[in-house]
Amino acid sequence: MPERHPSAVRLFAALSATVAPDRPARASLRALADAAVTADRAGVDALVVRGSDPAGRPTVEPVGVLADVAARTVALGLVAEVSPASCAPDHLARELATLDLVSEGRAGLLLNDAGTPDAEAYLAAVRQSFEGTPEQHPIVLTSWSPSAADWHVAVEDSGAPLPRLMPVTLPPTPSARAEDSTGLLEKLIRTERPHGLLLDFPAGPASLEIFARVMLPLLRERGVLPPRAERVRRTLRGRLGLTQPADRATAVR
Amino acid sequence: MLHAPPGRLTLGVLLPGRLDYPFQEFLAMELERGRVDALLAPGPRAPDAPDPVTLLSGLSGATEHIGLVAPGSPSGWDPHRLARRHVSLDVLSSGRAGWHITGPEGTAVDETLRLWDAAHRDGMPGMAPPVQRQPVLFRTDDPTAGDTFTTRYADVVLTSPHDLPSARRRYAELADGVRAAARNPEHVLIWPVLTPSRGATPANLADRMQHWYEERAADGFLLSFPGQAGPLVDFVDHVVPELWRRGLFPNAYDGRDLRGTLGLPDPTPAPGGVHA
């Protein structure tokens, strides 16, 4: 895969839609929505909402959370992480198509464990269900691990793999330490020259807020990332430079 | 039902079946401006129709108070998945979720409600607890069905009477059915479906609604405005203020969940099912 100039790095931010046990659920989700608005304003390309929490905390359905966020954002892509066992493919296709409708073309799917035969069959079934929704074409990302230490996340379109997103976990960073963390991220981008980053924020929305408000502007100041573009309403496909698929034949990898 | 009328009329509106989402969002905000109790999403009749729960999740981000009622049949759904979807809507909307149960009944409804109840009471692995102990359950009345599904489960029953006498008769029959199901008729709302005719003035429409309410033919109404937004906006602008003026309908939300807004208590478990 040809390397890209750091200035063209795509930024995806991942959060779990967890509910803190010590406060009303709505407060937790409001924090996520507020962080999404901040990310939208800062020029992050897309928000990925995970379907489960690594720490086992209770969560809310990703597609529903993203539909709620859609009303508050303008350009942010909205990607739901799904595991094949969690939802029938035709149901998921309808939910994603509706999210795409609600968000005016910003919906996406991140399918976990995409390297297995079951996952490939599931993805094929989801794509086939999209055939009935000619106006909605959510983008598809797949995540798989060829080895214990190496995860890949790829943007796919009609079965043709496109540039990968490098998964990066950002630990909790107090704003006072944000410049140090920014330096580490800068080094990673300049060294690895990834097409994109899937930034995971296990500490929750507050970490995404710090990234969007502090770290991202620093990266732009240092020329690591391009200046923030004007925030205009556009589809996620348009934002990523993907064309509308003409042939919805199912993909086999 | 067959008691002194509840303190006020209750009102729901059926969203027109349009695919233009900005239009749906505009209508939801208009209805909330008119302090309507709940909006019902159109059912997914066509394969490419929007998913109602996802649609309403989007509208939950654009509204603050109005109830959000999703139609859906439990057929073909895993109960755990179904419960999770509706619980998510309840959490996202701070307790404004309702479920208009369509299609044939079955054990999936009981199982879904049991899972919701368990999530509320004890928590469920991976599932955030709902705000309401149970979503407000809507059911379309079918007098010919000969089953007890409606009287055993529904919080709000949608009827289609032809005139006032038939509406009063059906209201009384449903009350008897609710009692036979060991439930309190005062805890069930009867909403005739009402499509305002173009020639009716705001005062005429308010007169009709008030008359049916006071004659125990209705606890409220589900208003339907097929086609265009104009009549719906006119209803909010002209009929709702008339109802306010007559003291039949409140002019502000009180900040409670949908059950509280409609004056419905939390359900209690019943023999053989979730309801009392």
TrEMBL record, chain A:
One of its GO terms (molecular function) is monooxygenase activity. It comes from the Bacteria. It holds the Pfam family Bac_luciferase. InterPro entries: Diverse_substr_monoxygenases (IPR051260), Luciferase-like_dom (IPR011251), Luciferase-like_sf (IPR036661). Keywords: Flavoprotein, FMN, Monooxygenase, Oxidoreductase. This is Luciferase-like domain-containing protein. Residues 15-119 form the Luciferase-like domain. It comes from Streptomyces cacaoi. The keyword Oxidoreductase applies. Gene3D superfamilies: Luciferase-like domain (3.20.20.30).
Automatic annotation (TrEMBL), chain B:
Signal peptide: none annotated. One of its GO terms (molecular function) is oxidoreductase activity, acting on paired donors, with incorporation or reduction of molecular oxygen. Gene3D superfamilies: Luciferase-like domain. Transmembrane segments: none annotated. InterPro entries: Diverse_substr_monoxygenases, Luciferase-like_dom, Luciferase-like_sf. Keywords: Flavoprotein, FMN, Monooxygenase, Oxidoreductase. Residues 46-101 form the Luciferase-like domain. This is Luciferase-like domain-containing protein. It comes from Streptomyces cacaoi.
